[in-house]
Amino acid sequence: FLDGERLDTSCRLHLRGRNEMTLSPTIFQLDLYLPSENTIGQLSSGRKIAVHSTFDSVLATGTILDVLSDTRDGKQITSVIFSDGIPFTGSFVSASFPADTSLKTITESLLYSSSVPLPLAGFTARDRTYSLGTSFFGSTADSLQSLAVDLNADVFLFRSAIYMLGRDTTPDIIDLTPEDVLDAVSSAKDVRILTTSMKGWPIGSILRYRQKPPSMREVDASAAGRSNPSREYSGQLICQTFDADTGEGPWCTRVIIQVR
After folding, report:
1. Helix pair angle (140-151, 103-113), 10° resolution
2. Hey, which residues does 210 pair with through a beta bridge?
3. Residue 54 to residue 250: CA distance in whole angstroms
4. Which of 63, 175, 186, 254 has CA atoms 20 to 30 A from the CA of 95?
5. Cα-atom radius of gyration of the chain, to the nearest Å?
6. What is the C-alpha separation between 208 and 259, in angstroms, rounded?
7. Full-prediction pTM beyond 0.90?
8. C-alpha distance from residue 212 to each of 176, 224, 254 (Å)
9. Burial 179-204 (b: 16+ CB within 10 A, else e)
10. Residue 183's pLDDT band (boundaries 50, 70, 90)?
């Protein structure tokens, strides 16, 4: 979608980038192979872009930073570079608050009065107040990080909105189906890495997947007498990476969940 209108993308597409649980901006690149001249013109004059895998599943959104055309192996490729959050990175704020102002109110006010205002889309931290008045001057992101420390929360930017999620609260839980998980789950320290179908899972949510035990045909004869219980993987989604090319089969994505 380009500026809210559906764009003709009947050509080959290659999407690269990642969404992370951070206040740093996301950078995406969408390559279009042999797009029409009309599509190139629309992209060059467009401002906002959103890439969907299905009509209701958003993968990546942002402001268009550049549109480049190149020729590779005799094929014209148009690359769209877009980002969610670059203007916010350089934003600043100057605000003071009296004693006993709730930290949620302070968070909302800082975002509203920032030089690049953004909405507070989620706040699950256990709210509290400062017994004394307080003030903020400088980077909006640094101010939010300071509040997050006092709230025992994680603060991050996702799809042009700010989220402040308490570490001692339970985020929304999304149950993955066997059709969602396309490969074996791998582990590294306190994280689990899953290859999933091409859906835009909300950053910060809990992804839960129950892996069914193998059938007897899949079990080695030497282990046939053992119990094979199902395994459950659950964790907070902290990163989702995209490197998907419609010219190389069905799209998929890799997600990293952190065990809580």
Report:
1. 170
2. 232
3. 13
4. 63
5. 22
6. 11
7. no
8. 12, 16, 20
9. ebbeeeeeeeeeebbbebbbbbbbbb
10. confident
